[in-house]
Amino acid sequence: MPRKRLDPLDVPLDQVRRIALALPEATERPSHGEPAWFVGKRLFATYAEQHHDDRVAVWLAAPLGAQEALIEEDPARFFRPPYVGVRGWLGIYLDLPAAPDWDELAELLADSYRMVAPKRLLAALDAR
Description:
Mean pLDDT: 88
Strand content: 15-25%
Order of helices and strands: HEEEEHEEHH
Helix content: 25-40%
Number of helices: 4
Shape: globular
CATH topology: Aspartate Aminotransferase, domain 1
Strand order of the largest sheet: 1-2-3-4-6-5
Oligomer: single chain
Largest sheet: 6 strands, antiparallel
Number of strands: 6
Distance between the termini: 42 Å
Structural class: alpha+beta
């Protein structure tokens, strides 16, 4: 059943942005017309409002096995994103009736960041 598109004032982009940019040396720039977060030149997450059934979601790199486990656990909230899902990326819907679990999203964004960040930045993250 299609979800009602979020009003732009209700879109949780600012919260996602705050979490992603709190990671050491994370930057934001557009990727395929959507906000995306990088560490150096490596992408670790993208805000996908136009790329998947007009749903608001975050796509992020996921550790081996996490994509399958999370989708199996809660297929209404997690999905395999087109294009990058075959490489293990995970999609997380943000437009569900219940508010997103921001603590869980912060952990998943940190896991994604860890997959692409250089060792010196991982040490900085672990030192927090």
